Amino acid sequence: AETKKIAVIAGDGIGPEVVAEAEKIIKRTEEVFGYSFTTEHALFGGIAIDEKGTPLPEETLSVCKSADAVLLGAVGGPKWDNNSKELRPETGLLGIRKELGLFSNLRPAVIFDCLKDASTLKPEVLEGTDLMVVRELTGGIYFGEKFRREGAGGEEAVDTCVYNTAEIERIVHQAFEIAQKRRKKLASVDKANVLETSRLWRETVNRIAPEYPDVELEHVLVDNCAMQLLRRPSSFDVIVTENMFGDILSDEAAMLTGSIGMLASASMGEGAFGLYEPVHGSAPDIAGQGLANPIATILSVALMYRLTFGYEDAADAIERAVAEVLDAGHRTADIAVDKSKALSTTEMGDLIAAAIR
Ligand code: NAD
Ligand code: IPM
Ligand code: MN
């Protein structure tokens, strides 16, 4: 196969730790399946602020643009939390998503049978849970105008939430298409009882829906959705929602799987190019201790193989290897019942790599 280029931006905290394990998996799939990759590393996030004075250096952006796909760890940490907006790691993350046109963030939450005891929910509630959050990623309150001003009650802060029809249409079409390839159920989540952006969202979804008559559509208000996710998670198939609701609901969905350390994500635009990252952050509380679960990042590589490269065999092999290692009882601390027997980040990565064949 032809050589593909992966830009690797490890970031901060546990980012470099989990990305190192994902790179092991990439190497292993080269050996086993004969695929060929070059990886190019670039600075991103807090470490880029420290070394280059900006969270998203031009050079990093061009490394990403010249690659076929991007593998990202996580950014952020207390060291940069009091910085101005321009000098925050998170601003770099929003910038890279916007610059690369990645408006669609896919966050699958699948319950591995043997992890039912790792979730805080009852096993019988989790039975059969297999859902996908499709989160709009480059619009809404994250990207609207923000400012401070003097008001009657002292200083005021303003965040504006803006969505236009075209932005809603493209993500909703993607969500319907994904639903068609799954169990053909789509829940569109909004706050149309209060927000104007949500009313435009719902109108747009309803206008598009007749193009997908085979997909069963329901509208769910976001507060109800947060509750239903815990009450009847297995009844959801695809959930499509705006940026901030998707951020919050996908962390909630993570706990269905047992740990946020399990949840992978793909950020896509119109084509095959994608950015792949775990849903979790830089976890400053456990960084540098070898405690991080690398599975979310490893499963993000499987998404990369499937969605960008079409390497279904290697994607399947990664997912099978993760299931096999978990089935054999191996656990990192976040998903372990007996924490004293927990594996380190690298031990887990090694076991999964060895199980790929
Ligand atoms: P977090 O996801 O980093 O951590 C939340 C909790 O989950 C912590 O207790 C952490 O130890 C645990 N956790 C996270 N990933 C884990 C893993 N792989 N294995 C085991 N445990 C794991 O969220 P937070 O604490 O709210 O944020 C920390 C920093 O990360 C902040 O600076 C935030 O802005 C940033 N962040 C970055 C991203 C990203 O880069 N995509 C995502 C979320 C948060
Ligand atoms: C995520 C993170 C980011 C987001 C932050 C760090 C900007 O929470 O990727 O889910 O809110 O999108
Ligand atoms: Mn988040």
TrEMBL record:
Cofactor-binding details, from the entry: Binds 1 Mg(2+) or Mn(2+) ion per subunit.
Residues annotated to bind substrate: 97, 107, 135, 223
Site (Important for catalysis): 142, 191
Gene3D superfamilies listed in its UniProt record: Isopropylmalate Dehydrogenase
Annotated SUPFAM superfamilies: Isocitrate/Isopropylmalate dehydrogenase-like
Pathway(s) it belongs to: Amino-acid biosynthesis; L-leucine biosynthesis; L-leucine from 3-methyl-2-oxobutanoate: step 3/4
Binding-site residues for NAD(+), renumbered to this chain: 77-90, 281-293
Name by which UniProt lists this protein: 3-isopropylmalate dehydrogenase
Gene from which the chain derives: leuB
